[in-house]
Amino acid sequence: AQSVTQLDSHVSVSEGTPVLLRCNYSSSYSPSLFWYVQHPNKGLQLLLKYTSAATLVKGINGFEAEFKKSETSFHLTKPSAHMSDAAEYFCVVSDRNDYKLSFGAGTTVTVRA
Amino acid sequence: DAGVTQSPTHLIKTRGQQVTLRCSPISGHKSVSWYQQVLGQGPQFIFQYYEKEERGRGNFPDRFSARQFPNYSSELNVNALLLGDSALYLCASSGHLENTIYFGEGSWLTVV
User: Fold this and answer.
1) Is B57 on the interface with A (CB under 8 A)?
2) Contact at 8 Å (CB) between B85 and B104?
3) What does the alpha-carbon distance between residue A65 and residue A35 come to, in Å, rounded to a whole number?
4) Can you tell me the distance from the alpha carbon of B108 to that of A39, in angstroms, rounded to the nearest whole number?
5) pLDDT < 50: residue spans in chain B
């Protein structure tokens, strides 16, 4: 069975400063890993995904994540936060052969002006 | 192309009633999944359907059921509603050769 742990329930940053959202995963097989973002009262939007190609994955809106198998981590970063980045972020894992997604508890990002 | 569409967007039901939620996948996608997101939590997997067959079921009671139609659209039914069923219900679709899952905007269900 696969699972993810998001290490921070809430992250607060100033506009223009870096953002780091931490995620550790557990998977019995070669995992697929994703980051999704959810703005208030909205559905889920895919930011990026890792599926065993390059370990550094670039996504939309300047986000990127690095897959580290030795650390079982998949942390999400952005060099410079924007006010529009304020949202809930979910780290997600799935078994490569199973489209079921297992979500972390989420990290709420607030951006200070 | 249209994304995953869900209806209704919001609804209020009374305890004990039944509800049906509808989902249309992205054109060409044959797999549909349902997730429940309770306020303040991450989504939880309910069902996955592929080619009209149930491929997976999460840890939900038998009050929850679903089906997929020949055009790959899907319905989620919940019987004997409880207050705890109040949540955002998300539908997602994916193609056969990719494991990226695309979500709809969801249906907000409030049980009073």
Assistant:
1) no
2) no
3) 9
4) 15
5) none
**Residue A1's pLDDT is what?**
74
Say if CB A82 and CB A65 are below 8 A apart.
no
Whole-angstrom Cα Rg for chain B: 13
Using an 8 Å Cβ cutoff, are A38 and A107 in contact? no
Contact flag A104-B106 (C-beta cutoff 8 Å) = no
The residues, any chain, with a CB within 8 Å of residue B82's CB and separated by 6 or more, are B15, B111
| Cα–Cα distance, B95 to B87 (Å, whole number) | 26
A3-44 pLDDT, tens digit per residue, is: 999 999 999 999 999 999 999 999 877 788 999 999 988 889
Q: Of B42, B45, B105, which is closest to A100 when you measure between CB atoms?
A: B45
Residue with tokens 């139609």: B69
Contact by Cβ (8 Å): A67, A57: yes
Measured CA to CA, the distance from residue B7 to residue A49 in angstroms comes to: 28
Can you give the pLDDT at residue B97? Answer: 61
- Closest chain B residue to A46 measured between Cα atoms? B102
pLDDT tens string A43-89: 899 999 998 778 899 999 999 999 998 999 999 999 999 999 999 99
**Terminus-to-terminus CA distance in chain B, angstroms?**
37
For strands B10-13 and A3-6, give the pairing: unpaired
